[in-house]
Specification:
With 577 residues, the chain is of the alpha/beta class. The protein has three domains: 251 residues, TIM Barrel; 94 residues, M1 Pyruvate Kinase, Domain 3 (Beta Barrel); 133 residues, Pyruvate Kinase, Chain: A, domain 1, CATH 3.40.1380. Helix 10 crosses helix 12. The longest helix is centred in the C-terminal third of the chain and has 21 residues. The N terminus is likely disordered.
């Protein structure tokens, strides 16, 4: 790392004509002019002067014949996509699929993985732990035997005050005009037109004439009679009634406030979390998070359990969570926008702007965001989506959300694989259009790092992305232990894909949710960063995915043991010969 005294931060950009590949150089520095990189701010050092961070760009040829291992931790789907579409054609928006009875066989899971599923979500509201364990086992088997890289997420049920169950193993159709009994009494089996609430005080404060809404609008009922704690309701809007559905009450167009002292994490949630930790899941999504306390509580628990590789996501699905959004985002490892439940608590017309604001806050704070709920809702029943649904998907991609999620479309719908292919096609097309139109979103560069090393890493990543876009490099290679610099690069949404090389499998699976990041599991040396670079590039070149003339940018957050390493805290640009 070059250090000098100055009042500004510069990136030394040593540029030659990219089209010329016969440099005859091996990690030599080509001379060129110094180009300022708009990375902002002064960094104070311990001495009297100030520290100037310079990112030295090295343009050199990579010699053939390097010894490399035969195996490379690039998943088969990314490898095939790279061969077919090239670097700039690779999809950057990640795809999450909810696993349910319609797609839980090994064959169906493999088809979803081949279709681009990056994360498999298990909703702990449904099915048994043995069922979930079997799905996790199948996904691990596909990863190990077939070469996929699919992460596993469990989604907690949340407070029981929100849950109803009709007892049937699959969805039930509620027809308009039919009368239903909602009760907290335990029901045997699945009696017709009877629904069990999982919280004894579910009807407290509810009046005749109030509206009961199921799963954010899947079906609606009007309360026509109240007998003790039981409610007799008439269906006013027909629709599907899923097992363990969530519900809310409305009065005169406003949400009826529910006063409950139930904790965010119930006893069942803690049991499910313990199950997830024992099964080695990669993400835990918390339902009905109204403040940062339950997120911190769970992260402390995971730390004590030595499960630091398990990431905690907070689901934003209530008015209270919006009011404390920034503290929740800061405490969590990522956010899921549950638009169905959120749409119950705020006016419909506010959903698009709220979604965009949550996405912006997450990017500023460098936390991945999943846009979920009702993306292709019609495909729960029909083989094609509405055009409005495709436009909705494209808008989430335009907002640079990290990931899109299928819920009932994949879990219970007969067209889950087709729904996934539509997400894949729509997101790829919108990404291409954004790049062709040069629609680089302007991100307020909120400074994240507190310590000097973290601030240096942040500035290097900001500069690296700007340079990668301006130079038109084919790919960015980042060598990382915990995924820090890969995440910082992703935050800036570069045009080229980010290949993140790591020796930690937990880091690899966590990066599966980051926009534009292709994580690879490889053995990395702390002693020789130049060998890491040469070896990994040679691995990809030998597979035929790098060709002469391709240009890659290299950054790293691995701390070298040799003080004179040129790869640490630098930006290198290398051309394949």
């Amino acid at each position: 790392m070059a250090v000098a005294t100055s009042d500004s931060i510069l990136a030394r950009s040593l540029i030659t004509d990219r089209r010329s590949t016969n440099f005859g150089l091996k990690n030599e520095v080509c001379r060129g002019k110094v180009v300022p990189c708009r990375a902002g701010g002064k960094v104070k050092g311990k001495g009297k002067g100030r520290v100037e961070v310079k990112a030295v760009v090295q343009i050199g040829g990579l010699e053939e014949g390097k010894k490399a291992k035969d195996e490379m931790g690039l998943d088969v789907v990314s490898e095939e996509e790279l061969r077919e579409k090239g670097f700039l054609g690779m999809r950057k928006t990640k795809l999450v699929c909810t696993i349910g009875p319609a797609c839980c066989s090994l064959q169906d899971l493999e088809k979803l993985a081949l279709g681009g599923m990056n994360v498999a979500r298990l909703n702990m509201c449904h099915n048994t732990r043995d069922w979930h364990r079997d799905v996790i086992k199948k996904i691990n088997q596909l990863n190990e035997e077939k070469g996929f890289c699919v992460s596993v997420m469990i989604d907690t049920e949340g407070s029981q005050i929100h849950v109803l169950d009709h007892g049937a193993p699959s969805s039930v159709k509620a027809e308009e005009g039919s009368t239903w009994l909602f009760t907290a009494q335990k029901l045997e089996g699945s009696p017709p037109f009877a629904i069990q609430a999982n919280y004894e005080g579910f009807s407290e404060g509810i009046e005749v004439g109030d509206e009961l809404v199921i799963d954010g609008g899947m079906a609606s009922f009007q309360v026509i009679e109240k007998v003790g704690n039981d409610l007799r309701c008439k269906c006013t809007d027909s629709g599907l009634f899923l097992p363990r559905a969530k519900f809310s009450f409305w009065r005169n167009g406003k949400l009826v406030a529910r006063n409950s002292e139930l904790p965010t994490l119930s006893k069942k949630d803690w049991a499910d979390i313990e199950f997830g930790v024992s099964e080695g899941v990669d993400f835990i999504a918390l339902s009905f998070v109204n403040d940062a306390d339950p997120v911190r509580q769970l992260k402390n628990y995971l730390y004590m359990r030595s499960s630091r590789s398990t990431r905690v996501l907070a689901k934003v699905e209530s008015l209270e969570s919006l009011q404390k959004l920034k503290e929740i985002v800061e405490a969590s490892d990522g956010i899921m926008v549950a638009r169905g439940d959120l749409g119950v608590e705020i006016p419909y017309e506010q959903i698009p702007t709220v979604q965009e604001e949550i996405t912006r806050v997450c990017r500023e704070m460098n936390k991945p965001i999943i846009v979920a709920s009702q993306l292709l809702e019609s495909m729960v029943e029909y083989p094609t989506p509405t055009r409005a649904e495709v436009a909705d998907v494209s808008e989430a991609v335009r907002q640079y959300a990290d990931a899109l999620m299928l819920s009932g479309e994949s879990a219970i719908g007969p067209y889950g694989q087709k729904a996934l292919s539509i997400l894949q096609m729509a997101s790829s097309r919108m990404e291409l259009w954004s790049r062709e139109e040069n629609r680089q979103s302007i991100l307020h560069q909120r400074r994240l790092g507190v310590s000097l090393p973290d601030r240096i890493a942040e500035q290097i990543c900001n500069c690296a992305v700007e340079m990668a876009n301006n130079l038109g490099v084919d790919a960015i290679f980042v060598y990382t232990k915990h995924g820090q610099m890969a995440s910082l690069l992703s935050r800036n949404r570069p045009y080229p894909p980010i290949f993140a090389f790591t020796s930690d499998n937990g880091t690899r699976m966590a990066l599966n949710l980051q926009w534009g990041v292709i994580p690879l599991l490889v053995e990395l040396s702390d002693d020789d960063m130049e060998a890491n670079i040469s070896t990994t590039i040679e691995l990809i070149r030998r597979k035929g995915m790098l060709k002469p003339g391709d240009v890659v940018m290299v950054v790293s957050d691995l701390t070298p043991t040799h003080i004179n390493s040129t790869a640490f805290q630098s930006i290198q640009v290398k051309t394949v010969v």
